[in-house]
Amino acid sequence: MIKAIIIDDNPDIRETNKKLLAEYFSEVELLGEADSVDSGYDLIRNTNPDLVLLDIELKDGTGFQILQRLKQYSFKVIFITAYDKYALKAIKFHAIDYILKPVNVTEFRLAVQSTLDVIEKDLPTTEQSNQFLTSFNSNCGLTKIMLRTLNTMHLVNISDILFCKNDNSYTTFYLISDEKIMVSKGIAFYEEILTDSGFYRPHQSFLVNLNHVKKLDKTDGGFVILDSGKEIPVSTRRKKGLIQILENL
Fold it and tell me: Would 35 disulfide with which of 9, 48, 67, 108, CB 3.0-4.6 Å?
C-alpha cells in the first residue's frame, strides 16, 4: 500500500481529496490529515508517508515552510493551489504534480496517477525537490527545467535548449549537446512557461530559444537559422511578432 497524508487548511478540500483517493486509488492508504504548518510537519514526522497532498497557502504559513523544515525528504509531493502564480510556474518548471482549486476530478486523477507512477518506478526526485526549493527561495529567476520521461528525470539548463518540436501530444527538446528528450506534454504547456525565458513560437510545431537564433531568412515562407545550422520554419502570421522581438534583443 502507498501511505498518504493530506495537509490543507480547508476542511472541504480535505474531504474532497479524501473521497477521491478512496474512490479511484484503492492502493493508497490515507494515514491522516493536518491543517497547518506545525501540525503538517508533526504528521509527516510521525507517519513517514510515501505521498503528501500539500496545500501551498496554509493558515499559519505555506506548504513550502514544511518542506524547508524537513530539509531532506523522500516522499513525493502533489501541491494543491489556487494562489501564487510564481509558485505554480516553479512547480511546472520542475515537473512536480499539482492540483488546482477548486478540485477537478480528472485533474486530480491525472496528478495522483502520475505521482504513483514515479513512486512505482522509484525514480529519484531529491535533486528535483532541491532545485525547486532553491529556485522558489532565490527569487532570481528559473535557470533549469526538469523534463520527466517514462523512466528518467532530466534536469536541463534552459540555456542549453535549442528548440522544442511538437509531436502530437508530446514535445521533443533538442539540446546543444545533440541530445533529444521527449516528454508527454504538448508544446503549448512549454510555450506558457518558457516565453519569459526568451523562447518564441514561430510556428505551431516549434518553440525556439531566441538566444540561439543566428539569423532570420525572410524569403519564401521564412525561417530562422540557429547556431547549429538548423532551420526552423516561420508561419506568416507569426513572422511580424518574431521580427519585432529580434529587433529588440
Answer: 9
Are residues 160 and 77 part of one domain?
Answer: no
Domain that holds residue 47: 2-137
Query: At which residue does the C-alpha cell 531532506 appear?
Result: 72
- 3-state helix/strand/coil string of 21-42: HHHHCCCEEEEEEECCHHHHHH
In order, the DSSP letters of 111-150 are HHHHHHHHHHHT---HHHHHHHHHHHHH-S---EEEEE-S
User: Is 91 in the same domain as 130?
Assistant: yes
Q: Packing angle between helix 126-138 and helix 63-70, nearest 10 degrees?
A: 120
Burial (0-12, 13-18, 19+ Cβ within 10 Å), 181? middle
Q: Tell me, what amino acid is at 162? A: L
Query: Residue 1 half-sphere exposure, CB side, CA atoms within 13 Å?
Result: 11
pLDDT in tens, 161-219: 999 999 888 999 999 999 999 999 999 999 999 999 999 999 999 999 999 999 888 77
SS3 87: helix
pTM above 0.90, yes or no: no
Question: How far is residue 182 from each of residues 91, 148, 167, 173, 242, measured CA to CA in Å?
Answer: 19, 9, 9, 6, 26
Is there a contact between 205 and 194 (Cβ–Cβ < 8 Å)?
A: no
Encode 6-30: b = buried (16+ Cβ within 10 Å), e = exposed: bbbbbeebbebbeebbeeebeebeb
For the chain, how long is the longest CA-to-CA vector?
Answer: 66
Omega of the bond leading into 49 within 30 degrees of 0 (cis) = no
CB 155 within 8 A of CB 126: no
